[in-house]
Amino acid sequence: MNRPLHTEPEAPVIELRSVCKRFKDTTALDSVSLSLAGNRIYGLLGRNGAGKTTLMSVLTGQGFHSSGEVRVLGGSPYENDSVLNRICFIRESQKYPDDFTPLQAFKSAALFFRHWDADFALQLAGEFQLPLKRRIKKLSRGQLSAVGVVIGLASRAEITFFDEPYLGLDAVARQIFYDRLVQDFSDYPRTIILSSHLIDEVANLLEHVILIDRGRIVLDDDAEAIRGSAVTVTGAASKVEPFVAGLTVLHRETLASLASVTVEAGLTEAQRSEAADLGLEIAPVSLQQLVVRKTLAAAEEFSANAAATEMEVSR
Amino acid sequence: MNRVLNVARMQLINKWTFLGIPAIIMASAFLITLAIWALIPETGETKYAGSGQAVMWYFLALGIQSLTLTFPFSQAMSVSRRTFYLGTLGLFAVVALATSVIYYVLGLVETATGGWGMNGQMYALGWIAAEPGPVQILFYFISMITLFMIGFWFATVYKRWQATGMLVAGIGTAAVLLGIVALITWQGRWPQVGQWFAAQTPQTVAGWAALFCAVLAAGSYLTLRRATP
Amino acid sequence: MIDESRPIFLQIAERIENDIVSGALAEEAQVPSTNEFAAFYRINPATAAKGVNRLVEDGILYKRRGIGMFVAAGARERLLARHREDFARQYVQPLVQEARKLGIGAGQLTDMIKHSYTATQDLTEGSVAQ
Lengths: 315, 229, 130
What we know:
Order of helices and strands of chain C: HEHHEEHH
Distance between the termini of chain C: 30 Å
Number of domains of chain A: 2
Strand order of the largest sheet of chain A: 5-6-7-3-8-9
CATH architecture of the largest domain in chain C: Orthogonal Bundle
Distance between the termini of chain A: 61 Å
Strand order of the largest sheet of chain C: 1-3-2
Structural class of chain C: mainly alpha
Number of helices of chain C: 5
Largest interface: A-B, 33 and 24 residues
Shape of chain C: elongated
CATH superfamily of the largest domain in chain C: Winged helix-like DNA-binding domain superfamily/Winged helix DNA-binding domain
CATH topology of the largest domain in chain C: Arc Repressor Mutant, subunit A
Number of helices of chain A: 11
Number of domains of chain C: 2
Mean pLDDT of chain C: 88
Order of helices and strands of chain A: EEEHEHEHHHEHEHEEHEHEEHEH
CATH class of the largest domain in chain C: Mainly Alpha
Low-confidence stretches of chain C: none
Number of strands of chain A: 13
CATH architecture of the largest domain in chain A: 3-Layer(aba) Sandwich
Strand content of chain A: 25-35%
Number of strands of chain C: 3
Largest sheet of chain C: 3 strands, antiparallel
Largest sheet of chain A: 6 strands, mixed
CATH class of the largest domain in chain A: Alpha Beta
CATH topology of the largest domain in chain A: Rossmann fold
Oligomer: heterotrimer
Helix content of chain C: 55-70%
Structural class of chain A: alpha/beta
Radius of gyration of chain A: 22 Å
């Protein structure tokens, strides 16, 4: 990798301490604490409405948190030009001034992003087949998303946030985006935070995964560490249960006398041998499956807590 | 400061909004008025036209537009609200100043040509034209800023509180005005009010307007600070 | 190409190792850069780098500053030795377990193996040393 844009890549570029965001009747962010180092591609995963956009809003000073501390590049992002001019936040449905063309949007971006690469923007626009001189309000959904994606990539901002901006893009355009993202990140390392609910598509691009559910951080770990951190043990229930005793169970399914249990554990060679001897099948768990299981487990815990609280209240 | 200038540049990327349309409005209002006057038989009496006002109302709309259309985009450009505010208002101040000077100059031309050769009065309105040049320019300037700020202020209220905010602001304003009218009527002070109005000079009007603008400016800034794109 | 459920850096390392063992990557040959791996497999460059660095740590690859990564001398031998060590655990043990399940005795299994050797002699001629 070459020419990193951060001066101290190991110092955290983003720090959140017990950040909460409350609306009238919901808690969008519930005591979120994160510490993100620079020059990595982060995946901010979670269901729709989990809090991904709210989190990014708060980190870019565009939204406001109710309590807690937010530090981006060493400072608070809210109304702080010295921090703001080093970051870029591309939203899912970005609004542009009426009558603006993509070319005019790029001209604006050139004024505000110090590392803006105009040639790169034009090259990308060509790959996405963007009509540069057509009014943005006349563009298709996919073309509108493409404008945002191009600005996000060509800004080369030290911290670039992509909030599912590729939702309008078709599969081909999405692949172009992923390819260009990896390529440009290789050439110009910076911090990229990608939110998505299309986990399988982005999984291999991520270095670090942050999973958020109902405003809470459910997972915050290195992607490679997550891969291979869980297995599914299938076989006769009478043999499976003792085998998985003591391990953290993420999911359990039964069918007659068969049981299939997903556990959060990396099995040792000895354990694998033991499983083979018992006639148990050990299947790997992909990043996507793990994310789904963890989200569902968090949901179960949430409703269990809610039910318990309700019972307390009704007593 | 550089970023503030760049906000102004961004607002000017589409040349029509801040430059083109005002120019067209002024030019067409002027030409249309002249054309109409040319059709009226000459009687030696002064012909009045309010065409000078036309562009002022556009500035009200511009105040609204410069926020609603560009603010969300400025946030995407990672521009702080303060920078956006200063850049947009600063740009308009320059436009307003330039337009005011043009008005003043047109007023001089009007007087020199005897009302455009037709005894017309568009720009050199009696009450104002009597004042020295700088006062005239100041008066026009403050009037334009006031209209712009009204539009801008309404737009920030809308951005922050949406329809509810607009409703409250609208009803609130109406209530305040009605309240004042009611108070004056109840106290039987209309004659005094009339006298006070008659006594106003362009300077004093400009003074009150400037005060009003300052309040709107502060209000819109404070509202904008907590607005989301 | 990439297995979603195992650490990707390990898979990258394994692929390079396989290429060395099969002879596709000769000793002192240059290995593609991490950026090239990342682009080819569509993975994060840091992940590719992790896989490559693992091989550097194991002494399979070495770095020439400003030029790139190269296959170390003796890498193939070292890999073959390691794979041979793993062979018993990775292949023989499961084979024996499966054979037991099916009621195939040691002698019968040995005959099968010998038969397989002769049958595949011609096919594998010229690859890994006999």
